[in-house]
Amino acid sequence: MIMAKNYEEEAKAILKLVGENNVDSVTHCQTRLRFVVKDRKAIDDKALEKLPEVKGVFYGSGQYQVIIGTGVVNDVYAAIAKLGTVNAIYGKDDADTAGKTSNEYKTVVQRLMAMLSGIFIPIIPVIAATGLFLGLKSAATNAQVLKLFGAVPSDIPASLTSVISVLTDTVFAFLPALIVWSTLRYFKGTPIIGIVIGLMLVSPILPNAYSVADGSAKAIMLFGWLPVVGSQGSVLTALVAGFIGAKLELFFRRHMPNVLEQILTPFLTMLVTFAIMIMGVGPIVHAVESGMLVGVEAVIHLPFGIGGFLIGAAYPL
């Protein structure tokens, strides 16, 4: 109870120094509170840095970031949201909070970076955990490590390897589903609808995109001419599906009679979004994604370090 009270006082102190009327919205990542503010110059950085839980402050990509630290930031943010005096968008369902930006967002790139941050931050913990699983699997199956115990990789039962693969492969196999969920959530759609749409995109009924690419499987030819494959590994497709799904859901909820809204809104949202993705937008987005990959690879391989210079120069954008 004492800690909760301290976080409430800390939250009040932070809001006082940032300025409640100066805040358009606030969210958080794993270590920082992220404020979209009207006037960055109105904030007293030095006073904020003197607060007990504040480790530092930083301004970038149109966000005023207050560094709190892992774990504690969740409690401080919860205290800020509980006060109800500013627009806390992380985990809230108010559609009016979606897409709010500061006047200091000077470029489209900055707006895009803020959006991507809001979408991917909730997914980072499970990706990080999967990375740890992969590291442990690599160490446990390493020939040199096994040699210390008088064993070789072939001694590991195939059944055990399969079970371990569930830990290491699940997140990446269903990553598009996670991205659609988070995107729909960011744009204030219903998260469970996002999960289902995402799972549709990577359904095992559809030919695996990787298998189609290496020739071991063939695309489903819808109507005899439209190739349909899964969206495994396609981040951009998932982002577009989540955005379309959220906008469609909000549209249907506004125009659907109350007596039908509960059933028909999810039905139409999932149906129309999936149809749009497999019958047009999905293949186009996948082609754009492939082109972007080719372009980035071409830049990376430019001679004399030019590629690294260009990527480094673009990073602050």
TrEMBL record:
GO CC aspect terms: plasma membrane
Protein's membrane topology: Multi-pass membrane protein
Domain PTS EIIC type-1: 127-317
Keyword Cell membrane applies: yes
Keyword field: Cell membrane, Kinase, Membrane, Phosphotransferase system, Sugar transport, Transferase, Transmembrane, Transmembrane helix, Transport
GO molecular function, one term: protein-phosphocysteine-trehalose phosphotransferase system transporter activity
Compartments reported by the entry: Cell membrane
Organism listed in the record: Lacticaseibacillus paracasei subsp. paracasei Lpp123
Xref: InterPro entries: Glu_permease_IIB (IPR036878), PTrfase_EIIB_Cys (IPR018113), PTS_EIIC (IPR003352), PTS_EIIC_1 (IPR013013), PTS_IIB_1 (IPR001996), PTS_Sugar-Specific_Components (IPR050558)
Keyword Transferase: yes
Name the record gives this protein: PTS system sucrose-specific EIIBC component
Coiled coil regions in record: none
Phylogenetic lineage: Bacteria, Bacillati, Bacillota, Bacilli, Lactobacillales
